[in-house]
Amino acid sequence: MGESLIFPEMSDSVEDREVPTAAITLTEAAASKIAELVGDDPESAEQALRVAVRGGGCSGFQYALAFDAKTDEDHVFEDRGVSVIVDKVSMQFVFGSEVDYVEGLTGAGFQVNNPNVVAACGCGSSFQVKDESEESVPA
Predict the structure, then answer these.
(1) β 117-120/107-113 pair status
(2) Has this prediction a pTM greater than 0.70?
(3) The domain that contains 92 carries what CATH number?
């Protein structure tokens, strides 16, 4: 019963599809780099990686990643022994994302793999998410 005659490629049932259960997850490379950067310094004990979304860029939104301290308005998530902070507004745009740390010929840095992105600019510095008003319009 799992097959669809109209869309054969959509043979997985809803229960079989992978649904994110955590707001933010980290790859092993990202967790290791965060732990290295935060280090054992007592002053950095309150620091965590903040993942935020800001307006801007040619596609509409940009990620802002920085080490910061938690505020009362933030959500804090633990993954692989490392803390990640997301503010309440950014949460709707990054839920289910994975943060990775990549090193390449053009440089190194954190990269957000976001399942909510529907379009990105050519340089990869900004992105667009599906407009919720589009979701409610029947096709």
Answers:
(1) unpaired
(2) no
(3) 2.60.300.12
